[in-house]
Amino acid sequence: MQYAIDRNIMTSCDSLSQLEQYGELNPGGKCAVRINPGVGAGHHEKVVTGGKKTKFGISESDIDEIFKICDKYNLTIAGINQHIGSLFMEPTPYLDAVANLLRIAKRFDNLEFIDFGGGYGIPYHKLDDEKEYDMADFKKRLEPIIDSFVADYGKAPLFKSEPGRYCVAEGSVILGRVHATKDNSGHHFIGTDVGMNVLVRPSMYDSWHDIEILRVGKPVSRKELAPANVCGNICESGDLLCKDRPLPKAEKGDLVCVLDTGAYGYSMCSTYNSRPRPAEVLVKSDGSLQLIRKRETYEDLLKLM
Ligand SMILES: Cc1ncc(COP(=O)(O)O)c(C=O)c1O
C-alpha cells in the first residue's frame, strides 16, 4: 500500500480494515473500495470472488462504515470496483452484479470511476464446437443498465471492465513430449513432461483443456479414439491433464499440444518437484518465431541460495 501511495497509484481497499490502514498511511488521500455485490460466478468455486462465501470486497451492509472511516481520515472515495469471479459464458450473474453495484454506487458522491471487473469466458471445448461468449448480446443487455444509472446519478463516471482470460487465453498452447505410455488396471496413461507445475488448472480446478496428439511428418488420425489419461512427471496422482478422455493412440516421441493455455498458464507455473519451468516462444503474424522466455535451468533453481 505504501509503495502505491508513494507513486500515486490508485489503491482499492478490499475491507474496512484496509481502508482504515489506508487512512493511517495517507490521511486526506483518495482511493477506491472494492464492493462485494452479493453475486458470484465462475467455472469453479475456487474462482468465484463475489457473494457471501468469499473473502472479497466490502458487503453492502458495511457501506456506512466506509463513510465513517472516510470522515475520520478525510479520505475521498474516487471509485468503486468489483470482480465476481472468472469464466462464465452467460452474462446474467455479471449483469445482476452490475445492477447491484450501480444501486450501491448511488450512495457515493462524485465517483470518478466504477469498475465492474472481468471474468468473461472463452470456449475451452473448441473440439466440440463450443460457442464464444456472446459480446454483442452482453453489450445489448449492459447498456440500458448503465444508461439508466447515468440518468439517475446525473453524471457519467468512467466505467471500467478488467477482462483477463478473455484477452489472452486463446493466444497460447503448451507443447510437450510423450515420454512413455502404459496401461494400469485397465486405464491407459500417456506420460508427458507437461506436469501440474507447467499447467495447474486441470489439477487445481478440474479444468478442461482440449488436447491434441501430434506426430511430426505424419498426421494423427482422430478417427479411432480410446479413453486415455494424459499425465505429467510430478509425484502426485492428481497430476493429470485429462481423465479417460477419448484420444488418438499416442506413441513415445509424439508431441502433446494443450490448447488455450494463455490465461492462468505460465503465471501459475511453478518449480514444484525441482522441475525447471519451460521456455516461451512467440509465434509472430508472419510465422517467424522468437524466444521470449528462456527455459529455466537447474542453476536457476539454485540461484537464490
Ligand atoms: C480484480 C480482478 N479483476 C480482473 C481479473 C481478471 O479475471 P478474468 O481473467 O477472469 O477476466 C481478476 C482475476 O483474478 C481479478 O482478481
Question: How does this model look, in words?
Answer:
- The chain contains 8 helices and 14 strands.
- With 305 residues, it is of the alpha/beta class.
- It has 2 domains: 165 residues, Alpha-Beta Barrel (TIM Barrel), CATH 3.20.20.10; 131 residues, Lyase, Ornithine Decarboxylase, Chain A, domain 1 (Beta Barrel).
- Strand 13 and strand 14 form a beta hairpin.
- Helix 2 packs parallel to helix 3 and helix 4 packs parallel to helix 5.
- The protein binds pyridoxal-5'-phosphate.
- Pyridoxal-5'-phosphate binds next to helix 6.
Record the SSE blueprint.
Layout: H1 2-6, E1 12-13, H2 16-25, E2 30-36, E3 58-59, H3 63-73, E4 76-81, H4 92-105, E5 113-115, H5 135-153, E6 158-160, H6 165-168, E7 174-184, E8 187-192, H7 201-205, E9 211-214, E10 226-231, E11 240-247, E12 255-258, E13 280-283, E14 289-293, H8 298-302
Parallel strand pairs: 1-2, 2-3, 2-4, 4-5, 5-6, 8-10
Antiparallel strand pairs: 7-8, 7-12, 9-12, 10-11, 13-14
Helix pairs in contact: 2-3, 4-5
The structure holds pyridoxal-5'-phosphate.
